[in-house]
Design goal:
With 52 residues, the chain is an all-alpha fold. The chain contains 2 helices and no strands.
Length: 52
């Protein structure tokens, strides 16, 4: 079975892409879980930071 020289590069690029997408999806999922369980209250998040 002959594999074209560009096939190895394409295969590596696909594997790296899968890991990048999986990592990004995991990060967004983790952020949503953290916001759901331990997010700030709306009053605190919408303030302008001066405490008034």
């Amino acid at each position: 079975m002959y594999l074209d020289p560009g096939f190895g590069s394409m295969l590596i690029q696909a594997v790296v892409g899968v890991f990048a997408v999986a990592g990004s999806a995991f990060y967004m999922f983790r952020q949503k879980i953290k916001a759901f369980f331990g997010g700030k209250k709306d009053e605190e998040a919408s303030g302008d930071g001066n405490g008034l």
